[in-house]
């Protein structure tokens, strides 16, 4: 009896072990399938996020390189008209910018003017704007609202990628002194021939070569300004920063200072991420907040002219695009993002 029992129990034990092994194998297979499925969904999610990130990137609006239909240099008309932006709505600002570039669609721009929402989401419709007059004569205590807006020139000239801000020719520079009777007359000054601000005299695109040249006649400007200031004007006053609001809206995200291609100009940065946007902000010690494309003084974009003539060379680059994770475009063994081929070489000439 005991022998019979041992014979019948042995196959039963083997069957139980077999079932256990099979169960383990099935469980492992299921775990493997689950891991594969998770990996698939994770990859799909990453690719979806990448596609969304690419869609959210600013699109280069300029027709450059092989896309350029015009091979010859193209001069862009510059609007110098002084005006205030106070009280304008966002719709009015964008409509104005759209109208300024309408004639260049298909020749300079890829398509109709397309505003970047992230550059305007801190804009306050109907508010006052930072004042050029206050920059020149008042300082931070009264930046808002009086006379021509500091950003008028950038807003009215959307194809000007870089706007030079000569804050050294203002109260901000201790070495610069206005004639004694000028500050008291500042409300009337902009109705006269007062040389308030140096504006570029020429804006030229070489689209095939992916270049743009911006020219300033500083020598003649300084001669016109001299009677309005105390003491002789020197190159010590020719300190400026760069405002790149328009460059950002044209699809560029970084600027690189090309020191070797520049002459008689000193700068303190190599490559900088562009950050300008229109926002309603209140500067330290200011009495109120107002719209501005950025604060007037940006030490990361500060330059000084040693002598005239001078030349400043910059390279604007578009945003980085994350690498694809699809089988069609496998991930390269590198974490470096691919670059959008949107490059614009900017040369600013000061005569």
Give the beta-strand count: 15
The whole-angstrom Rg is 31 Å
What is the average of the pLDDT values? Answer: 80
> Helix segment count?
7
**Percent of residues in beta strands?**
15-25%
Distance between the termini: 117 Å
How would you explain this protein's 3D organization?
The chain has about 350 residues and is an alpha+beta fold. The chain is elongated. It has a seven-stranded mixed β-sheet. A four-stranded antiparallel β-sheet has the order 2-5-11-7, with no helix packed on it. It has seven helices and 15 strands. The longest helix is centred in the first third of the chain and has 55 residues, at about 1-55. Residues about 50-55 and about 320-340 have low confidence and may be disordered. The protein starts with a helix and ends with a strand. It has helices spanning about 1-55, 90-100, 130-135, 150-155, 185-190, 220-225, 245-250, and strands spanning about 75, 165, 200-205, 210-215, 240-245, 250-255, 265, 270-275, 280, 290, 300-305, 310-320, 320, 340, 345-350. It folds into two domains: about 1-55; about 60-350, no CATH class.
């Amino acid at each position: 009896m005991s022998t019979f029992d041992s014979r019948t129990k042995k196959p039963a034990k083997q069957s139980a072990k077999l079932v256990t092994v099979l169960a383990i194998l099935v469980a492992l297979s299921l775990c493997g399938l689950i891991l594969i499925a998770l990996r698939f969904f994770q990859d799909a999610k990453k690719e979806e996020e990448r596609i969304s990130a690419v869609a959210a990137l600013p699109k280069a609006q300029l027709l450059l390189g092989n896309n350029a239909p015009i091979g010859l240099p193209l001069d862009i008309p510059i609007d110098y008209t002084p005006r205030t932006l106070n009280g304008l709505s966002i719709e009015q600002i964008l409509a104005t910018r759209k109208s300024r570039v309408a004639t260049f669609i298909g020749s300079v721009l890829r398509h109709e003017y397309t505003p970047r929402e992230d550059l305007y989401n801190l804009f306050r419709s109907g508010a006052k704007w930072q004042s050029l007059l206050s920059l020149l004569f008042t300082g931070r205590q009264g930046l808002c609202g009086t006379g021509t807006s500091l950003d008028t020139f950038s807003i009215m000239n959307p194809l000007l990628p870089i706007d030079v801000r000569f804050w050294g020719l203002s109260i901000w520079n201790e070495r610069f002194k206005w004639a004694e009777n000028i500050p008291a007359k500042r409300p009337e000054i902009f109705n006269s021939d007062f040389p308030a601000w140096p504006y570029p005299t020429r804006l030229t695109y070489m689209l095939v070569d992916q270049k743009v040249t911006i020219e300033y006649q500083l020598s003649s400007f300084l001669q016109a300004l001299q009677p309005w200031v105390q003491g002789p004007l020197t190159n010590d006053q020719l300190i400026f920063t760069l405002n790149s609001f328009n460059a950002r809206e044209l699809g560029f995200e970084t600027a690189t200072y090309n020191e070797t291609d520049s002459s008689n100009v000193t700068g303190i940065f190599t490559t900088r991420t562009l950050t300008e946007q229109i926002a309603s902000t209140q500067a330290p010690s200011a009495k109120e907040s107002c719209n501005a494309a950025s604060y007037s003084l940006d030490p990361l974009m500060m330059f000084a002219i040693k002598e005239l003539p001078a030349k400043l060379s910059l390279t604007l680059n578009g945003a980085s695009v994350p690498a694809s994770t699809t089988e069609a475009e496998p991930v390269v063994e590198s974490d470096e993002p691919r670059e959008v081929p949107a490059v614009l070489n900017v040369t600013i000439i000061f005569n």
